[in-house]
Amino acid sequence: MKSLVKTPSITKATASRGRQMLNKVPEVTLYFWIIKIMATTVGETAADFLNFNLHWGLTNTTYLMAILFLITLFFQFRARKYVPGIYWLAVVLISVVGTLVTDNLVDNYGVALETTTVVFGLALLATFAVWYASEKTLSIHSIYTTRREAFYWLAILFTFALGTAAGDLIAEGLNLGYWISALLFAIVIGVVTLAYYFFKMNAVLAFWIAYILTRPFGASLGDYLSQSRHAGGLGLGTMGTSAIFLVIILILVIYLTKTRIDENPRLSSED
User: Fold this and answer.
1) What would the pLDDT profile of 72-83 be if each residue is shown by its tens digit?
2) Contacts (Cβ under 8 Å, ≥6 apart) of 156
3) How far apart are CA 114 and CA 92, in angstroms?
4) CA within 20 to 30 Å of 118's CA: 5, 11, 174, 183, which one?
5) Quick one: pLDDT at residue 266?
6) Quick check: 11 pLDDT over 70?
7) pLDDT-based confidence at residue 122 (cuts at 50, 70, 90)
8) What distance in Å separates the CA atoms of residue 261 and residue 138, rounded to the nearest whole number?
């Protein structure tokens, strides 16, 4: 990984398109995965809270969260480097929006969970294919141009929509229950982690597989914590679960903002 000045493969045109940006995403640390999983859980519980508890309905909730996400994404694109507060707010909001996209298709339009899982899976693969064909990399260590950042957020949107559909399919469609579903996805994530550390699995492939799987894991965990005991949950409620996780996310983001331990200003032409 080299700097912009020393890397011959990064042209002036690329630097111009990227507005001389530094890498726009955080380093993949333990904090990254903790906040990401909590954000996915909030995506599930907050969407349910707004939709059912506040009686906003899927349509109104979707419009509001989509507008908030687009506003946040505007500031994310305008930033020239990774800013923890903006970045993680965008992740939380896109988690909610991704959940609502799937819920709208299933609940409002009657699309089967099997269908949404396949469709979003294919959409994600198509995004990766076009991204790689255009940029020759899917590495998150190289998000330093506007075009790469656009591919990155589009891929994330599809991972959340796919994860919601797959999580609901496993937990509800196959009647495995919330905690068994969460445990199942946790085991698969553990297998990917072992494959990366001990069997030299490709880092980019391992990251995206884990990123996709943490969505249904977080969704299943959120349902288990928030749903009533009669429904197989712990009965914390969507409001309580969302509040707890949002407070923890806020504390961690403040910590990362002050310590800057997850920043990587280097540009990369690797992977």
Assistant:
1) 999 999 998 899
2) 91, 94, 211
3) 25
4) 183
5) 53
6) no
7) very high
8) 23
* Dihedral pair phi/psi, residue 80, rounded to 5°: -100, 0
Instruction: Decide if 88 is inside a domain.
Output: yes
Question: Residue 77 falls within a domain, yes or no?
Answer: yes
* Predicted structure pTM score: 0.85
CA 158 to chain centroid, in Å, comes to 9
Q: What is the pLDDT of residues 60-71, one digit of tens each?
A: 999 999 999 999
Q: Quick check: is 132 in a domain?
A: yes
DSSP assignment of 99-145 equals: HHHHHIIIIIT---HHHHHHHHHHHHHHHHHHHHHHHS---GGG--S
Tokens coding 188: 């698969």
Terminal-residue alpha carbon distance, the chain: 10
Determine the structural domain holding residue 235 and report its residue range: 12-259
Nearest CA-CA partner of 95 in 56, 65, 122: 65
Query: How many domains in the chain?
Result: 1
CA distance 196 to 199: 6
Q: Which of 59, 61, 85 is nearest to 72 (CA)?
A: 85
Q: Are 226 and 48 in contact (CB under 8 A)?
A: yes
Q: Give, in order, the Cα–Cα distances in Å from 237 to each of 47, 95, 183, 241.
A: 12, 19, 20, 6
Give a yes or no: residue 269 inside a domain: no
In sequence order, which residues have a C-beta less than 8 Å from that of residue 255 and are 6 or more positions away? 31
**DSSP sequence for 238-252:** HHHHHHHHHHHHHHH
Tell me: the pLDDT tens digits for 174-231? 777 778 888 899 999 999 999 999 999 999 999 999 999 998 888 888 888 888 888 7
Residue 193, pLDDT score: 95
Tokens at residue 13, please? 């045109």
